[in-house]
Specification:
15 strands, about 375 residues, Metallo-beta-lactamase, Chain A, 7-stranded mixed β-sheet, L-ascorbate metabolism protein UlaG, beta-lactamase superfamily, alpha/beta, about 25% helix, globular, 6-stranded mixed β-sheet
Length: about 375
């Protein structure tokens, strides 16, 4: 009897291992590694060595196995404060309101770090993770806080540019790319990320890979890919295989900064000195913890980063859609508002789906995250 139970358990473990190996190797969600030829080209860069991209300053990401194990129960704890206990007031966007004329610079926030930016008559998507779960499979992550997006992908206008900051699942989503690739003219991505897009069927001539401090011009929109303090990787063994970073976007009248993900560091001041002042800055503020603050800013650092880059107005992002850390879901906005006020820094926290117009009063604020 014991022998049969043992063999049955062994068989189950074997099935799970084989299933896992097949999933990792055959599922398109994991993307594709940069080719050996591309990796050889990366070796000429100052911030690439031993087959990995490096941060500009030392960045410790090693918590150690024992510490990680101690944190696991807390991470998976069923804490009701980590997600809304009421229906969020999502603003629906009518597709007809996005076409027909050249609008003053404005944005629509989808929650987390995803935006539609309308600038000088161009439609630009930033980190358009518009799927339900930020993971390679729905079973491997928590669902979005709200079921319906402000507008579905199919209802969006033709997209001139998509910008990706890095290849993590909560920023680069396979299903979203599949639904967007045929209505998008150009993809601008960090070095190495183009391999994912190519494997997903995006035409090579649409893909533009960028290195830190590299500048480009797409349809009269100035773009610069700037550093962040983070990491990359979509599998178990490919951490640091592609680059990560932030974006400077400049039109005829407005200059915008999109931070992507990352910890606080001197790069913010350097970006501000080179490209600032910024009319509007979207700065990461969520999914942080003291144990990994070097790769995700704390809210107080988010506000300070806004000062460093010389932003006229900041908006906290990377929150209000997914639970990826242990803090309450409103902790990011509550803390960054306090620090921004202390620094006399204008800040806006719009409802998801509302149109953020740069020419309007940027400090209009409604505390929609508080349960009515």
């Amino acid at each position: 009897m014991i022998k049969k139970l043992f063999l049955g358990l062994l068989g189950l473990i074997l099935i799970l291992v084989v299933t896992g190996v097949l999933f990792v190797n055959l599922s398109p969600q994991f993307g594709e590694e940069p080719s050996e030829e591309r990796q050889a080209e990366f070796e000429n860069l100052d911030h690439y060595s031993d087959g990995k991209f490096q941060n500009l300053i030392p960045t410790n990401m090693d918590m150690g196995f024992a510490k990680a194990m101690r944190m696991m129960p807390e991470f998976f704890k069923n804490d009701p404060s980590r997600k809304p206990d009421f229906e969020l007031p999502i603003v629906s966007v009518d597709s007809s309101e996005l076409v027909g004329k050249v609008f003053p610079t404005r944005l629509v926030w989808f929650g987390h770090s995803a935006f539609l930016l309308q600038l000088d008559g161009k439609n630009i998507l930033l980190d358009p993770m518009l799927g339900e779960v930020p993971a390679p499979h729905p079973w491997l992550g928590d669902k979005r806080f709200f079921e319906e997006l402000p507008i579905e992908i199919e209802e969006l206008p033709e997209i001139d540019i998509i910008l990706f900051s890095h290849d993590h699942y909560d920023h680069l989503d396979y299903e979203s790319v599949q639904r967007l690739k045929d209505k998008t003219r150009a993809f601008y991505v960090p070095l190495g990320v183009g391999s994912h897009l190519e494997s997903w069927g995006v035409s090579v001539d649409k893909i533009h890979e960028m290195n830190w401090w590299q500048e480009g011009n797409e349809n009269e929109i100035f773009l610069a890919f700037t550093p962040s303090r983070h990491f990359s990787g979509r599998g178990l063994t490919n951490r640091f295989s592609t680059l990560w970073g932030s974006w400077v976007i400049r039109g005829k009248n407005d200059t915008i900064y999109f931070s992507g993900d990352g910890g606080y560091g001197p790069h913010f001041k350097e970006i501000g000195e080179k490209y600032g002042p910024f009319d509007f800055a979207m700065l990461e503020c969520g999914q942080y913890n003291e144990n990994w603050k070097e790769i995700h800013m704390m809210p107080e650092e988010t506000a300070q980063a806004g000062v460093d880059i010389n932003a006229k107005v900041i908006m906290p992002i990377h929150w209000a859609a997914f639970r990826l850390a242990m803090h309450s879901w409103t902790d990011p906005v509550e803390r960054v508002l306090v620090k921004a006020q202390e620094l006399n820094l204008p800040i806006i926290v719009p409802k998801i789906g509302s149109k953020i117009e740069l020419s309007a009063n940027p400090e209009i604020r409604e505390k929609w995250w508080i349960k009515p």
